[in-house]
Amino acid sequence: MSDVLGYRGKRVVVTGSASGMGEAAAQILVDLEAEVIGLDVKPTGVPVAKSLEIDLRDPEAIESAVGAIGSPIDAVFSVAGLPGPPFSELDTMLVNFVGAKQLIESLVPSMPRGSAIVCVASTAGLGWQESVAEFMPLVSSPDFAAGKAWCEANAAMLQESGGYVLSKKALNIWVAWRAATLLPTGIRLNCTNPGPTDTGMMSDFEAQSGADLINAYVGPSGRRSTSIEQGWPLVFLNSPHSSYIAGEALHTDAGFTGALVTGQIEVVRPDASARRD
Ligand SMILES: NC(=O)c1ccc[n+]([C@@H]2O[C@H](COP(=O)([O-])OP(=O)(O)OC[C@H]3O[C@@H](n4cnc5c(N)ncnc54)[C@H](O)[C@@H]3O)[C@@H](O)[C@H]2O)c1
User: In this structure, what CATH number is given to the domain that contains residue 22?
Assistant: First the structure.
């Protein structure tokens, strides 16, 4: 059977296409004969159809990229992200959530029925269900300026919990909430929650939290994942054959979450400031 995932000739957008999971997803999609438009602050080595430089902290750059992408768009892979320190907590929130949401919402009008969007959250966002009410003003914010204003008004929370953790909780909540209103327009929205993965940002996670804490999040598999192991689930979720999957937060963590919530593993943070991927 050829074109088993249904991507041949489809126009797809991949953010974070220069490195790690986004680069892996872009390469898979090129191999599946999709027309790939790659977006990143850095140039990508993947032979995509079109490569656009974009800084997701900049709403004007987002707007001009949306114009350059054009229409129609069959799938969006929102993968770009920052790890937190050495980047600021605000920049991390802007790239991982506020800018990502702004880009996606600006692309939605160009997406026909049967199209799909996937975001990359993280096991760092586990427990997001307890934060729904608190995060709803951010999640339902109408545009980039309003989202940024929420982050600035909640600077103390960003500093205490870290922009990375908050951005991944916000992503999970937004996906759960927004999927319900997108689905009647024929567009599916989902996310993945990866465990530790050997990519460009891993050295920053290790510098923040130490390799021991990162490895505590590996779970039953006993190893970190690779970019390609995270790229394939993204491609699966956005395939037209996944047509009854929407509002899903897929744990791409090789059993970590299941083992954690059933009490088989415990993760002890050495101090309150330590964070994980
Ligand atoms: N690596 C892990 O352990 C891990 C675990 C869970 C989730 N994640 C998430 O996976 C996603 C992909 O990250 P990765 O692990 O492949 O890391 P990576 O650093 O290899 O890739 C991140 C990409 O985002 C791009 N980017 C950074 N700032 C940007 C900006 N301002 N505008 C546009 N693009 C920007 C980078 O240039 C890079 O190409 C991120 O959302 C990350 O939070 C990573």
Answer: 3.40.50.720
